[in-house]
Write a structure and sequence with these properties.
The protein is mostly beta strands. Helix content is 0%, strand content 46%.
């Protein structure tokens, strides 16, 4: 698999916005059947934030629905996550992930087999 590299994390005030990027190494395509953002807060399990499939469907976790947008650039080399109205509960390490074409649940961690190293988002 191509290496996935996240960027765009940092410290943000509550109510603010951020845009995370996930690029494939060597400017390769990042597009696979499933692409998603997950996050993990300290002492909590990793949870899905949003997913997008190559055939179209987009799914958001209830905790971010209405505040998050996931999308690919036209060249399909970068996956983005934009979030607004950030809350302290959004503080976490954010990971992008991709997965193969198979039956499954788009927000299920088991559907993804290629992961980035993560980028930290802190909301205060």
């Amino acid at each position: 698999h191509v290496q996935l590299v996240e960027s765009g994390g940092g410290s943000v005030q509550a109510g603010g916005s951020l845009k995370l990027s996930c690029a494939a190494s060597e400017h390769s395509t990042i597009a696979r059947y499933r692409m998603a953002w997950f996050r993990q807060a300290p002492e909590k399990q990793r949870e899905a934030v949003a997913s997008i499939r190559s055939d179209g469907p987009i799914t958001y976790a209830p905790s971010v629905k209405g505040r998050a947008t996931i999308y690919l650039n036209n060249a399909k080399t970068t996956l983005y996550l934009e979030m607004n109205n950030l809350k302290p509960d959004d503080t976490a390490q954010y990971y992008c992930a991709t997965g193969p074409d198979r039956e499954g649940i788009d927000l299920a961690e088991r559907e993804y087999d290629n992961w980035g190293q993560g980028t930290q988002v802190t909301v205060s």
